[in-house]
Design a protein that fits this description.
Layout: E1 9-14, H1 18-27, E2 36-41, H2 49-57, E3 62-67, H3 78-96, E4 103-107, H4 113-130, H5 142-150
Parallel strand pairs: 1-2, 1-3, 3-4
Helix pairs in contact: 1-4, 2-5
Length: 173
């Protein structure tokens, strides 16, 4: 089971920094796990406790917020609020007997494509070691549930220049 488990991971990414860093990682052809499903937010400050919990409840094996560097938020303190909410969710998960390591917060600038790829790789490995989400239900899409919980907060999906989307000739599909 351990070798075949591919976790479903939801990333709530800041439009200005983390989402741009993910795009840069793809443009740089940096490898990171393909099991990452991104939801772009105008700011991680829009991320609420309920959004993180709904993603876990819907069966995401791991969830993380990726925002601007601390002190560099385009909306001043949004990423600081997000970190507090992520830490609160960790406490709630621990109280419920679910590993708090399934939720995390990363900070990066738009120029740190390598940091995005490293965070995605490290977090995926962490979740592989933890194993499947104990509340995972069949037939429920964690990504769809997380987007639905956000209502109109999430920005429209855009194709990233991920390593998987780049064909051999170097052109995006």
């Amino acid at each position: 089971m351990e070798g075949t488990f591919e976790p479903e991971i939801i990333v709530f990414a800041c439009h200005y920094c983390a989402y741009a860093a993910a795009d840069l990682a793809g443009s740089m052809r940096l490898q990171y796990p393909s099991n990452i499903r991104m939801i772009k937010l105008p700011c991680t400050g829009k991320l609420e406790v309920i959004h993180l919990l709904r993603a876990i409840e819907a069966g995401a094996d791991g969830v993380y917020a990726a925002g601007c560097l601390e002190g560099e938020c385009h909306y001043l303190k949004g990423n600081l609020w997000a970190r507090k909410r992520v830490n609160h969710v960790k406490d709630l998960l621990a109280e419920m007997g679910i590993e708090p390591e399934r939720v995390e917060m990363y900070n990066m600038s738009s120029a740190e494509g390598a940091k995005f790829a490293a965070a995605a790789t490290e977090f995926t490995q962490r979740i592989k070691e933890l194993g499947p989400n104990p509340v995972k239900r069949e037939g429920v899409s964690p990504h769809a549930a997380a987007r639905e919980a956000l209502g109109g907060v999430a920005m429209p999906d855009e194709p990233l220049a991920s390593a998987a989307a780049i064909v051999e000739e170097g052109h995006a599909e």
